[in-house]
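Lab notebook page, bench 4
Experiment: in silico fold of construct C2
Operator: M.H.
Input chain length: 173 residues
Purpose: comparison with the prior construct
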Amino acid sequence: MTRKVRLLMGIALWLAGTGTAASENLGLGTWLIEAAAAEGRPDSPKYDEAFRLLSPLATAGNAEAEFQVATLYANGLGSLSVDFRRAAGLMKRAADKGLAKAQFMMGHYHEAGVGVRPDQDSALVWYRKAAQGGHPMAIARLVELDHSSWSVTEVRRLNVGTGVPAEFAEDEW
C-alpha cells in the first residue's frame, strides 16, 4: 500500500472517530479486502496486508476479524493457500460469537462439506441461527431446504427490514 493511501486511510479513520489501533486495523483490513476484491485479482498484495492487520485481531477473538481471515483462507487469497479446515475453524469461532454472516457460512460449510464433514442437520441449525440474526440469505436457504418446518409467520417476522424478496414470505410454498 502506498504512503498516500495510508495517509488517506488514516485521515478517514480519524474523521470517523475510531480511536483504538484494533478498530483502525479492523477497518483498514476490511477496506483492503474490499479494495482487492474490486480489483478482481486473487493474488493482490492488498489481501496479504489485510491478513497482516487482521490475524492478530482474529487470534485475540474479534469475530469480524475471524470472519475476514476465514474468508481469506477459504478462497486462498493473496499469498495464502486454500485451507478449508482453518477457514472452518475460524468461521465457527466467529459464528459462536453470534455473527450472523459467519453463522450463514457455517451452514454453507456443513451443507457443502467445506472444511467439515457434510451434515444437513448441522447446516440447518446454523442457517436457523443466521436467520434469527436477520441474515437474508439464511432465510432464503431455510425456505429452500426446510420450509416444511419453517412457519410462514416466522419467515415474515424475520423478513422485516432484511431486504428479503417478498416471495419468501408468501403463503404458497
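Observations: The first helix runs from residue 3 to 16. Residues 20 and 26 are 10 Å apart (CA to CA).
Next step: discuss at group meeting.
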